[in-house]
Amino acid sequence: MGDAGAVAPPFTGSGVFKGVNNAVDLAEALQANPTVDAALEIWGQTQTVTGQRLAVLGQQMEQVWI
Predict the structure, then answer these.
(1) DSSP strands (E only) in 1-66
(2) pTM of the predicted model as reported, rounded to 2 decimal places
(3) The total number of structural domains that make up the chain
(4) CB 3.0-4.6 Å disulfide test: which of 2, 13, 48, 54 passes with 19?
(5) What is the crossing angle of helices 36-65 and 15-32, to 10°?
(6) Residue 47: helix, strand or coil by DSSP?
């Protein structure tokens, strides 16, 4: 959850955002899927996309500041 799930540069300000959204997304996935395995599969895919987007955001912010 949060920073343990995907690491983005700290200046993106995403640590708390990721932690809260990880928990909300996991709860929604568990409610929407018939098994825990199915829920975790869906949840994991969405968290990977979020992590990738934050990594790109961090790279873009770094380039602007440099």
Answers:
(1) none
(2) 0.72
(3) 1
(4) 2
(5) 160
(6) helix
